[in-house]
Specification:
The protein is α/β, with parallel strands linked by helices. It has helices at 9-21, 48-65, 95-106; strands spanning 77-87, 111-114, 125-137, 141-154, 159-173. Helix content is 24%, strand content 32%.
Length: 179
Amino acid sequence: MSRLLPPPSSLILPTLLLLAGCGSPPNNSAYLDPNGQRMEVDVNRINYQDFDMAAKSLVQGLLNTGAIKDKRPGQPTFLLVSNVINDTDQQFNTNMLLADIRSSLLETGKIQILIPNTVGPAPDYVLSGQIMYDKTGTANIRQSAYFFDLILTDTTTNASTWEKKASVVKQGTGSTIGL
């Protein structure tokens, strides 16, 4: 009958070290305040912070001008949020910008957002726009500028009643940042 012998003492320490190293790697992840100072900035890409900054600026501009008038006293204004064209070299869902805009406008209690291609009331206004960019740089500094341009159109006159451009400009240095 064979007996299991304990491993020689010279193998115990390496075995323990090996087993200790088999655990998960340390996790340095953390939740961040989306408005905080520790957010990553990528000069070459548009990101959450860019959409958030642009949406806040655009909504504040739209609401401060009073461009959206009550067309039916006592009833909300119907707004159709149309296409926002992505005219950049990056692929992203423009709904990241529009979701914040729709939410902020709905919170006013004076505006109802209409969904395209549905049966219902006709819109009083249509909000549309475009996202553009410009990249430039020198040997040491790279700069990207993103322009979020929105236009509000009154559907009874087909006239533009408001337009605003929000700009987000980022700069960075280093050889790993390319254009």
